[in-house]
Specification:
single chain; alpha/beta; Elongation Factor Tu (Ef-tu), domain 3; Rossmann fold; Dihydroorotate dehydrogenase B (pyrk subunit), domain 3; 3 domains; seven-stranded antiparallel beta sheet; seven-stranded mixed beta sheet; 6 helices; binds flavin-adenine dinucleotide; binds FE2/S2 (inorganic) cluster
Length: 253
């Protein structure tokens, strides 16, 4: 069940120039959270901004903490980035459906700031794990060593070739002929579309976590709808409530 907690910031670290790694103490949310779910963070500066959705990167239920990794792109995330240990932040969660990490050969595919929710997913997976991460430049690379520490084989692609494969994650997967039983993915919509096509061609099941822009974040408006196949037609689903994770074969891109 979703809860609002007044969480204490445990730590705030810089991962890159514009990406922050924030751990917050919210024991109720931490005890309920699943890999791939997200929380809504309230920018508490008196300007009444809407809450901002941020994926749960890691869950430490024992200590009542969750870890959030976010890029500073606008007013809300800039406000969050100024918090430090001991500050308080209002948080609603856990939100959405999340992944259900299982057994078998898993391929985790992340693009840019879509990488963080895959870390907890990777930690919970039981079988063989291959991780494919895509970034614009080597200075944007995040969390790579943490996936390796979880026993995953990690491939990196950068748009400009400054680290690893030059190109995008799907081109890298084609070049390395990467396959598995289930793909868990999160990143830009265009990446997820081409990844779903790749999975379909090779008969691999593919879960995609969509990061649509949101308004209410709790299913009360239609700010985040996407088209999902339904029989011979399609229906609207809400990313904040029915997602963010969908079967890639069912999304109408
Ligand atoms: C389910 C979900 C999980 C997310 N998880 C993360 C995460 O783990 N880490 C992270 O850094 N970000 C994540 N995001 C995106 C994050 O919510 C936005 O970057 C944030 O709300 C921007 O708020 P702001 O006030 O800083 O920027 P705003 O001033 O609201 O916007 C600044 C710029 O960012 C763009 N933007 C805003 N929201 C989104 C969005 N949802 N998708 C793409 N572009 C957007 C705007 O178009 C604008 O160009 C997630 C989004 C969703 C829906
Ligand atoms: S953001 Fe309002 S329904 Fe999803």
């Amino acid at each position: 069940m979703k809860t609002v907690e007044n969480a204490a910031v445990v730590s705030m670290l810089n991962l890159t120039d514009d990406v922050r790694d924030m751990t917050i103490h919210c024991p109720v949310i931490a005890s309920e959270a699943k890999a791939g779910q997200f929380v809504e963070l309230y920018p508490d500066n008196g300007v009444n901004l809407l809450a901002r959705p941020i994926s749960i990167c890691a869950i430490d239920a024992e200590n009542g903490n969750i870890r959030l990794v976010f890029r500073i792109v606008g007013k809300g995330t800039e406000i969050f980035s100024r918090l430090s240990a001991g500050d308080k932040i209002r948080v609603l969660g856990p939100c959405g459906n999340g992944f259900s990490p299982g057994e078998g050969r898993a391929v985790l595919v992340g693009g840019g700031i879509g990488v963080p929710p895959l870390l907890e997913t990777c930690r919970q997976l039981k079988g063989e794990k291959t991780v494919v991460l895509g970034f614009r430049d080597k200075s944007d690379v995040i969390l790579c060593d943490e996936f390796e520490a979880l026993g995953a084989k990690v491939y990196i692609a950068t748009d400009n070739g400054s680290l690893g494969f030059k190109g995008n994650v799907v081109e890298l997967m084609k070049s390395e002929n990467i396959t598995g039983d289930m793909i868990y993915s999160c990143g830009p919509k265009i990446m997820l579309k081409f990844l779903s096509d790749y999975a379909k061609e090779r008969g691999i099941a593919c879960l995609v976590s969509l990061e649509e822009r949101m308004a209410c974040g709790i299913g009360a408006c239609v700010g985040c709808v996407v088209k999902i196949k339904d029989g011979d037609g399609w229906t609207h689903k809400k990313v904040c409530k029915d997602g963010p994770v969908f079967d890639g074969r069912e999304v109408i891109w």
